[in-house]
Specification:
The protein is built from six helices and seven strands, in the order αβαβββαβαβααβ. The protein has about 200 residues and is α/β, with parallel strands linked by helices. It has a single domain, classed as Vaccinia Virus protein VP39 (Rossmann fold, 3-Layer(aba) Sandwich), CATH 3.40.50.150. The chain has a seven-stranded mixed sheet with strand order 3-2-1-4-5-7-6, with helices on both faces. Helix 3 links the parallel strand 4 and strand 5. Helix 5 runs antiparallel to helix 6.
Length: about 200
């Protein structure tokens, strides 16, 4: 059974891959396999047939993972209004100027284009030495402000309060399903004390 945020994510990703044709995945966050520049994330295997039907590109600022486009999200080498959709999963906490990154995606999107973003809030420190630092965390208010130029913004929290705390404790981090149930039981699923946010924006 999918959690609320997993249902939200699948719904929005399916919308992107069925309604848009030119899709750029910044950082390869979908984790659809080594041939697409990164490791496979089993939970996203359902996307494979959808990806084959669109022009899906991975953009990264380093060549190591063999992305289709080597570039920095803060200065995209893309024409104004040239992209149908961006995926930006767990990237904005690692860039020096996240507002500049969001502004660049907005600029490069076609009118009516989609932007799917994930950012952390209550989440552990996770730089990758030699590749990126870990600069920021984002509250609900911060997400709204970052995405203020879009015509429509939907924000879905990832984890309730109890499963967020459990996710930060190594002994519980792989057992958060129990805490998901407790969040539902105690009405903690819509809290803003959350691990992060999935955001779906329309230009």
């Amino acid at each position: 059974m999918l959690n609320t945020w997993e249902q939200f994510s699948q719904e929005k990703l399916k919308k992107i891959f069925t309604e848009k044709k030119f899709i750029i995945d910044i950082g390869g966050g979908l984790r659809v396999g080594a041939s697409r520049g990164n490791r496979l994330e089993e939970t996203n295997k359902w996307l494979e047939p959808y990806i084959k039907k669109v022009d899906y590109k991975v953009l990264d600022k380093v060549k190591d993972y063999k992305p289709d486009i080597v570039a920095d999200i803060q200065s995209l080498p893309l024409e104004d209004g040239s992209v149908d959709a961006f995926l930006c999963i767990a990237i904005l906490e690692h860039v020096e100027e996240p507002q500049k990154a969001v502004t660049e995606m907005f600029r490069a999107l076609r009118p009516g284009g989609y932007c799917y973003i994930y950012v952390p809030f209550l989440y552990y420190y996770h730089p990758m030495k030699g590749y990126y630092n870990d600069f920021y965390r984002f509250t609900h208010d911060g997400v709204k402000y970052l995405c203020r130029d879009f015509s429509s913004v939907e924000i879905q929290n990832v984890r309730g309060a109890l499963s967020t705390v459990a996710n930060l404790v190594p002994v519980f981090s792989k057992r958060t399903k129990v805490f998901d149930w407790l969040d539902r039981l105690f009405g903690k699923t819509k809290t803003k004390q959350t691990s992060g946010y999935v955001v779906f924006c329309v230009k």
